[in-house]
């Protein structure tokens, strides 16, 4: 019987795989979005920045920033959920991913509900893959600022999965 | 307000280097250059859908504000259909119109083009609508 993989090696493997996935999206870097991971659960974080404002009178975060944040969170979650089994089984290594990034899902459509104005502070989002087939996927995303139960936006999107082989 | 002031008043529209090309009577045209920082998939150089959403949202909001009597607006919901990938390097032009306005809601549709034969995306949205007239 082989010894279990040391916890640090597991974390290192998962974190570097996630970093190469997120690092591959220039627009996510442009918005300052990053991800926290607990096991396989991801939380997207949008740190507040003055350039994200859409209504300086209120002030409020631009609706386009909120839509972008939710779409980035949905795509990364969907990609992450797809890669996870291969990553855990060792069929894909973070080194493979850094060398040859997995193709990202393509957005078919994306519908955003703007529930409250985005306050000038950090935002958080979690996405849930409701249906993931070989070709199509449906993902729901929720975003909040101060209170997890008081969403400031939610969205549903459909995606075309990258075809392998 | 002149066209460039409109964009300059919106920090994020300025950050995406948007340009207001036409505005009036519930219609707006706003464009955005291709920029490596806005790319969603480096393998293809295609602009991220989120940046296209931001352009459509800004253009929809501008169309509402240009409707006679409008004062302020906010997006209630926005749906974007991505019909094809944006051509890398090409400027994206969004056109939006308020096709129906009630006392409190403006209904908007928009398309995004990049010079190709077909639009790359279309959008429909509902925006809050408020006028200068006092409400009962």
From TrEMBL, chain A:
This is PaaI family thioesterase. Coiled coil: none annotated. InterPro entries: HotDog_dom_sf, Thioestr_dom. It comes from the Bacteria. Residues 61-148 form the Thioesterase domain. Pfam families: 4HBT (PF03061).
């Amino acid at each position: 019987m082989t010894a279990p993989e040391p916890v640090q090696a597991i974390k290192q493997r998962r974190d570097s795989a996630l970093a190469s996935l997120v690092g591959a999206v220039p627009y996510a870097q442009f918005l300052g979005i990053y991800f926290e991971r607990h096991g396989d659960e991801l939380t997207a974080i949008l740190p507040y920045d003055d350039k994200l404002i859409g209504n300086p009178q209120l002030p409020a975060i631009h609706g386009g920033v909120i839509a972008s944040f939710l779409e980035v969170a949905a795509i990364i979650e969907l990609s992450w959920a797809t890669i996870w089994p291969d990553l855990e089984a060792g069929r894909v290594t973070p080194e493979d991913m850094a060398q040859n990034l997995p193709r990202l899902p393509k957005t078919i459509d994306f519908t955003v509900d703007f529930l409250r104005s985005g306050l000038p502070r950090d935002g958080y989002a979690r996405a849930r893959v409701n249906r993931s087939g070989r070709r199509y996927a449906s993902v729901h995303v929720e975003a909040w600022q101060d209170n997890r139960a008081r969403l400031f936006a939610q969205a549903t999107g459909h995606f075309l999965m990258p075809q392998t082989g | 307000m002149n066209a460039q002031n409109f964009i300059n008043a919106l920090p994020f529209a300025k950050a995406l280097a948007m340009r207001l090309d036409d505005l009036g009577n519930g219609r707006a045209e706003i464009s955005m250059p291709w920029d490596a920082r806005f790319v969603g998939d480096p393998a293809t150089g295609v602009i991220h859908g989120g940046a296209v959403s931001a352009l459509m949202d800004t253009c929809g909001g501008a169309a509402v504000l240009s409707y006679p009597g409008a004062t302020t607006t906010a997006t209630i919901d926005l749906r974007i259909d991505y019909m094809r990938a944006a051509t890398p390097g090409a400027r994206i032009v969004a056109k939006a119109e308020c096709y129906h306005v009630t006392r409190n809601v403006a209904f908007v549709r928009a398309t995004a083009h990049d010079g190709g034969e077909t639009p790359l995306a279309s959008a429909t949205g509902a925006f809050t609508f408020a006028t200068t007239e006092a409400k009962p």
